[in-house]
Amino acid sequence: MPFCNTRFLRCALLTGLVAGSILVPAAPAESAAPGKVDVLIAFRKVPGQAEQNLVKANGGTVRRTYQIVPAFAVELPMKAAEALAKHKDVAIIEPDGLIEAVDAELDAVWGVKKIGAGIAHTSNPAYKGLGINVAVIDSGVDYNHADLKPNYRGGYDFVNNDSDPMDDNGHGTHCAGTIAAADNDAGVVGVAPSVNLYALKVLDATGSGSYSNMIAALDWCVKNSVPIDITNNSYGSSANPGSIVETAFINAHNAGILNIAAAGNYGTSAGTEDNVIYPARYASVLAVGATTSGDVRSSFSCTGPAVELAAPGSSIYSTLPGGRYGYYSGTSMACPHAVGAAAVLLEAGRGQYGASATNEYIWDMLKASALDLGTAGSDTWYGSGRVQVDYGVATVGLTAPSAPAPAPAPAPTPPPAIIGMKVKSIAYAAVGAKKADLQVTVTIVDQNGTAVTGAVVSAAIKCSTVATTYGGTATTNTKGQVVYKISKAPKGTWTTTVSNVTKSGYQWDQSSPANSYQKK
Questions:
Q1: Which among 210, 298, 301, 332 is annotated as catalytic?
Q2: Which of 121, 145, 171, 253 is catalytic?
Q3: I need a surface site. Which of 49, 94, 115, 438 has the fewest CB within 10 A?
Q4: Is residue 464 among the annotated active site residues?
Q5: What is the per-residue pLDDT across 182-228, written as a single tens digit (0 to 9) for each?
């Protein structure tokens, strides 16, 4: 699987990250056991049994392993997370954040017609997404629904870890209907009513889920015996989930998958904010905003330069669990319109150009054929404009894929800045009753003479009259000092040798200044 292309140049092994980087939540995630946290750990090489053993040795449990990124989803003690972050093979540790369905409010079928899907269905040749594999990553799908059963091809439930992705929320089924409801003269019809529909359940009955399960769903799409062509991602979070999640989407894209996501429902009436949510905000994901039946931005639709396209998202009528139908509004509803359109265009493209009709080609055709709305040209409300399936099919017929340009070599990642540090002094003092005890203070400063807090110091303290070695390993305080106290210290000449000083982002000069103390 290629890891770099002309649009995205980030490499899969997360190279260039600072060893020991850790971004963990201040409190354990809800799903973690007391005193533990759920995290994503990325390694500098493809992890195997040795890395699993490393996690277990630190009291952790590996919940999921992946192929799409060199990472594990892990539950482990917080202190263990801090220790693992310093391991030479660990690239970064990031929190396993929560994702939620992009809010859909229960508010007749107009969206499919509005974007010209009906024209594509009845054209000669007719295009309905035949042979295109679409995965709805969401709360599952009611695969027994009369409008969805003809096109359902399988899936997986990552919430309950089984092969039954039945929808117990409704959100995923509604999205699936807009994409794939069968053209059977009953109920509703999807934009691409002949696609192969797959359901990957990552959201539970409340509409919440984890990024670790979302990565597992992308992993499934790449590894599936029938590779997935397009994913629908009507979920997300306003907070950036981190580099591991971003790399998973980049690698899915580079594997040939077109990932399309809802832009989010945090928009305001002014529409001046840059508030597109993740994963739609990523450059490797096509972000879709929502429009009304009057081709105006839905007031809830997020805005910003990440918006690539717009599609119907207000009062959308589609399938619901239990054989029902209903109206939902949200960018969650706009996203499947774009997904269905992409499936139709991909069918048309493959029919004419075969494998040359790549995910990037379809991305470009969707934008090139969109109806320009708002400010002329691309803008922060509608992107390139509102999706038009019929014009998209025509554009595919007129625009052949161009030969891909060779990917430029990624610029080398500059090494992280290293701060020098040294042992400034080693001081002795007789303390305690009758001055019988000895106190040894080691002070660590950086290259500018500033005290270094949190450095781990290893020191050996010896006396000329006994064979015992004192000292050990300790961490510097806010004054940059570690203090060793030796009770009833023997008389004689005392010397201290510092053997190691470590702190992430710092480099010790490996010198231990000459010192001695005569205790009488």
A1: 332
A2: 171
A3: 49
A4: no
A5: 988 888 999 999 999 999 999 999 999 999 999 999 999 999 888 99
